[in-house]
Amino acid sequence: MESAGFDPEDFWLLDQARLKDRHKRADARGGFKGDYAQERRELALVCSDRLRLSVGPSYAFEQINAPDSTMDYDQTQMPAAYDAGRGYRPAILAMWLDAIARRLPAEQIDDIVDVGCGTGRYSAALADRFDARVVAVDPSAKMLAEARKKPSRGVRFERAAAESLPLPGASMDLVFGSMVFHHFDDPHRAVREFHRVLRPGGHVCLRAGTTDQLECYAYVPFFPTTRGIILKSLTSRAFIEATFEGAGFRLISHELIDSEAGESWRHYADKVALRADSILAQLPEDDFEAGLAALRRYAAAAPPDGPVIEPVDFFVLRSA
Ligand SMILES: C[S@@+](CC[C@H](N)C(=O)[O-])C[C@H]1O[C@@H](n2cnc3c(N)ncnc32)[C@H](O)[C@@H]1O
Predict the structure, then answer these.
(1) Per-residue pLDDT reduced to its tens digit, 172-211
(2) Is residue 196 part of a domain?
(3) Which residues, 6+ apart, have CB-to-CB distance to 243 below 8 Å?
(4) 170 in a domain, yes or no?
(5) CA pair distance 59, 51, nearest whole angstrom
(6) Containing domain of residue 135, as a range?
(7) Ligand 1: which residues within 6 Å by Cβ?
(8) Distance between Cα 223 and ligand 1 center (Å)
């Protein structure tokens, strides 16, 4: 849904102007101590307003939609590239485990299902952190094969989809899902399954990308055609909350948590180049190559220090 009035080059110019300004301020103070995340948010606001103006009110910021992003990871190159393309430093994983633990009664968490565990980015870490048993499920044999290569004390892997969990009713204390909600073939059925397998009062923790944050995702300005793919593939925050509430859950909290997507713009560009992302995987080859070239140009001009930050929607829900 690219519009005639919108020029993606604006992002580049805006960012350049901001970078120059940031350098000036940093020199004046003897080193940059700014808030990168805040900078991106401000920039995104300016850019999303422009986009809203140029596309009109039908632009789906308030969209309540079901996702259309079913993807068989076994038919892609993503499993082998996933950890290099999407992994993060131990400090970032620790930050996420803290965020998860902060919202839960940790002493009551003995059994966890990591739904759509992929290469197990969280599975063993959750088992360690909560001293719990983890059942890590994913429909992709290749993603599970990558996960099984890692030390995974306390983790049992199962090949299954969220819509049909191989677990008895009332057997889990926590359903954890990271970057998977938009892949469910039938989100309503998946969420009913979560309710079935949870013990009374059990929790769901969900990390997700949403259409609401579209303009804050770091690669979007460089790959403008991802906008249409994101709008079709991800869901809105409202849709996620409504789906859970309709299946007997109560929303405990929703936060936007700033997370590091790359240690620097150069590091980020190297990760993006691996294309271990279901949105980038859907781009036509030419769009991907052009976007990567623009991102690399930007990364070459950006200061080498300072992480690339993106907001992640983080939901905690309780089975009512
Ligand atoms: C972006 S990866 C996320 C992996 C992992 N949770 C993480 O954060 O690193 C999405 C995963 O969802 C899995 N997936 C796709 N459809 C699914 C479904 N219906 N139920 C459960 N998982 C699914 C994919 O196979 C893939 O491994």
Answers:
(1) 999 999 999 999 999 999 999 999 999 999 999 999 999 9
(2) yes
(3) 187, 188, 191
(4) yes
(5) 8
(6) 66-319
(7) 73, 115-118, 121, 138-140, 143, 161-163, 178-180, 183-185
(8) 23
Q: Which of 36, 43, 32, 16 lies closest to 259, judged by CA?
A: 36
Q: Write out the two tokens for 62.
A: 């308030």
Tell me which long-range contacts 29-35 makes (C-beta under 8 A, separation of at least 24).
Answer: 32/303, 32/305, 32/306
187-197 helix and 237-246 helix, angle to the nearest 10 degrees? 50
* CA of 121, closest atom in ligand 1: 9
Cα angle 265, 54, 291; round to 5:
30
Q: 194 C-alpha to center of ligand 1: Å? A: 15
Question: What are the tens digits of pLDDT across the range 90-145?
Answer: 999 999 999 999 999 988 999 999 999 999 999 999 999 999 999 999 999 999 99
The CATH number given to whatever domain includes residue 280 is 3.40.50.150
Cα–Cα separations (whole angstroms), residue 232 to 65, 114, 191, 281, 286: 9, 25, 20, 14, 20
For 255, phi and psi rounded to 5 degrees? -135, 155
Nearest CA to ligand 1 atom 8: 178
Q: What pLDDT does 68 receive?
A: 55
Query: Measured from the CA of 143, which atom of ligand 1 is nearest?
Result: 27
Number of independent structural domains in the chain? 1
Give the DSSP H or E segment for 251: strand 249-262
Q: Which amino acid is at 260?
A: E
